[in-house]
């Protein structure tokens, strides 16, 4: 459920990140206008506007007489009597009758509630820590606020407008709004394209209405065009791009289609909020008839907003970072520590599919099968792995850190410089090429790391291998033979490491290694270098440069 929330908050976080270090409340105290359908949906709550209610979350202790109740939970983070940070997050409470009528909507709302109730307290706690370290503001008032309003609720669309306000130091606050449009029957998000009868002229219409709505802003559209920088550098229409990428904030009321933009979304921060209305009267063929409202909804009878009492939370305490541990390099040659024995539960692979093409797009390949490509950095069921201190290019990490999945605590901090480049303790020589960490995973207190260089084997023949490190003793258990692993990742199943090596004008193979000794026990030829490995059940998916393979795993 927590993963699903991240997608729901994507627009918020994009807007916040776009503002970089900016963020204090503006000179006017951060006050904003009250919002209605099609109006400026800006955050309206400051720290001095908080109200008291029950000591617990209101939704846990009260029943409400409306189908939808918005409970605003207030947060305060103090040290002694001094408040360093505060916040607000919403909880959407549906009546029993409404949940019974729309069970899928209730599930979707529950996911949002879960995310909001976890994310905002965490942010406020961290902001309080930052505020204590703030030497610029004499009395910093850091804040993380999120409010929602329900602007439509019928059997076609349930629409919420979420407004966020963030201050974590800087010249001005980070704030913005986005829409959440849900199909109440299916519980799925509704894309703007799905409600349009004709998508061909939306972009031009938004541009036209924006120009008409802001005639007093000389050069607005020119600023919008100059502000937008597409990723590929080619000229593009921001309004069409937003439709194609489904990044419009929108809602439909009895007047028509409302579209609004937050600061920094299509123009500078100083431009502020922008909004346009595409009236049904002027654009009768724009919206699908099923989504058009004949009259305004009486939301006052359907939706109620209440406030909960301020909840006290503690400032975040930074976990101590483990000291960096440098791992010695016993030798460039095949290495196995004393007393280590091989496993007995090895797998075998039987090829079931081979789809060859000129070039395989691994992202498309992964999406087709319902998973993502993996590189460093990445996470698994237990840990998050990332590198630091790149050597020449940003991906050439020679230090490796292992965190908990939420990156709240670092468990291990390894300096792998000697393993990557030497010196070889036995022979006292350095690597001929810059080697770096390509992938890692931790199982049963053993850290498995793929190390190698980008180039031909002739540049450094003692390269592209798997190393196993005992995280309790910080000693190397084994180093596999070289030239067995230069993919983006590897997999471990039972007592087997599945990896692969290949390069231009060099042999291309999948290799099966014993995970206790690193010894190679099977070699499987492939058409080109294997980049990606993914195990789903008893199926191994392999992406090479020009071929997609599938194998059945036999235990």
The spatial strand order of the largest sheet comes to 5-4-3-2-1-9
Low-confidence stretches: 1-61
Mean pLDDT across residues: 87
Kindly report how far apart the N and C termini lie: 32 Å
The radius of gyration computed from the alpha-carbon positions, rounded to a whole number of angstroms, is 28 Å
**Helical region count?**
12
Main beta-sheet strand count, sense and barrel state? 6 strands, mixed
Output the structural class.
alpha+beta
- The shape is globular
Strand segment tally: 27
The proportion of residues in beta strands is 25-35%
Helix amount, in percent?
A: 10-25%
Characteristics:
single chain; 555 residues; alpha+beta; six-stranded mixed β-sheet; five-stranded mixed β-sheet; 19% helix
Concise overview:
This protein is α+β, with helices and mostly antiparallel strands and 555 residues long. The protein has 12 helices and 27 strands. The longest helix has 31 residues, at 103-133.
What can you see in these coordinates?
The strands form six sheets. This protein has a six-stranded mixed sheet with strand order 5-4-3-2-1-9. Helices cover 19% and strands 34% of the residues. The two termini are 32 Å apart. With 555 residues, the chain is of the alpha+beta class. Helix 1 (2-8) packs across helix 5 (103-133) and helix 7 crosses helix 9. The chain is globular and about 80 Å long. The model is unreliable at 1-61 (pLDDT under 50).
């Amino acid at each position: 459920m927590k993963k699903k929330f991240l997608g729901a908050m994507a627009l918020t976080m994009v807007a916040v990140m776009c503002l970089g270090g900016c963020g204090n409340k503006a000179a006017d105290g951060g006050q904003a206008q009250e919002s209605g359908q099609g109006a400026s949906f800006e955050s309206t709550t400051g720290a001095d506007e908080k109200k008291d209610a029950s000591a617990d979350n209101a939704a846990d202790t009260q029943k409400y007489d409306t189908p939808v109740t918005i409970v605003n939970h207030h947060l305060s983070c103090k040290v002694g009597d001094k408040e360093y940070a505060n916040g607000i997050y919403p909880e959407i409470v549906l009546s029993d009758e409404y949940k019974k009528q729309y069970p899928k909507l209730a599930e979707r709302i529950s996911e949002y509630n879960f995310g909001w109730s976890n994310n905002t307290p965490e942010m406020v706690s961290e902001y309080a820590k930052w505020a204590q370290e703030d030497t610029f503001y004499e009395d910093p008032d850091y804040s993380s606020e999120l409010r929602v309003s329900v602007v439509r609720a019928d059997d076609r669309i349930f629409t919420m407008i979420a407004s966020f306000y963030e201050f974590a130091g800087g010249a001005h606050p980070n704030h913005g709004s986005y829409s959440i449009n849900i199909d109440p029957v299916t519980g799925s998000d509704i894309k703007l394209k799905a409600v349009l009868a004709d998508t061909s002229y939306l972009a031009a219409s938004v541009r036209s209405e924006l120009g008409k709505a802001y005639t007093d802003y000389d050069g607005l559209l020119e600023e919008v065009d100059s502000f937008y920088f597409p990723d590929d550098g080619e000229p593009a229409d921001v309004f069409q791009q937003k439709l194609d990428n489904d990044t419009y904030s929108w809602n439909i009321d009895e007047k028509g289609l409302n579209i609004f933009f937050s600061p920094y979304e299509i123009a500078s921060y100083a431009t502020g909020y922008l909004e346009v209305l595409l009236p049904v009267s002027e654009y009768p063929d724009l919206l699908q008839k099923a989504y058009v409202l004949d009259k305004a909804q009486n939301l006052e009878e359907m939706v109620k907003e209440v406030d909960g009492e301020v909840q006290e939370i503690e400032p975040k305490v930074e976990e101590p970072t483990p000291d960096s541990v440098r791992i010695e390099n016993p030798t460039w040659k095949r290495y196995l520590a004393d007393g280590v024995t091989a496993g007995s539960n090895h797998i075998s692979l039987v090829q079931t599919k081979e789809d060859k093409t000129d070039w395989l797009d691994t992202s498309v390949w992964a999406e087709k099968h319902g998973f993502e490509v993996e590189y460093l950095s990445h996470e698994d069921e237990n840990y998050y792995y990332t590198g630091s201190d790149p050597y020449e290019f940003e991906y050439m990490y020679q230090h490796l850190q292992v965190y908990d999945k939420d990156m709240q605590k670092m468990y291990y901090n390894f300096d792998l410089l000697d393993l990557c480049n030497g010196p070889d303790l036995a022979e006292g020589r350095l690597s001929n090429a810059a080697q770096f960490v390509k992938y890692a995973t931790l199982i049963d207190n053993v850290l498995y790391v793929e190390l190698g260089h980008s180039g031909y084997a002739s540049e450094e023949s003692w390269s592209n291998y798997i190393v196993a490190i005992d995280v309790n003793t910080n000693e190397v258990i084994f180093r596999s033979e070289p030239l067995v692993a230069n993919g983006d990742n590897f997999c471990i199943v039972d007592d087997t490491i599945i990896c692969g090596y290949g390069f231009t004008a060099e042999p291309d193979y999948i290799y099966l290694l014993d995970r206790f000794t690193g010894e190679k026990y099977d070699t499987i030829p492939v058409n080109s270098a294997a980049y990606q490995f993914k195990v789903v059940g008893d199926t191994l998916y392999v992406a090479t440069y020009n071929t997609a393979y599938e194998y059945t795993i036999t235990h």
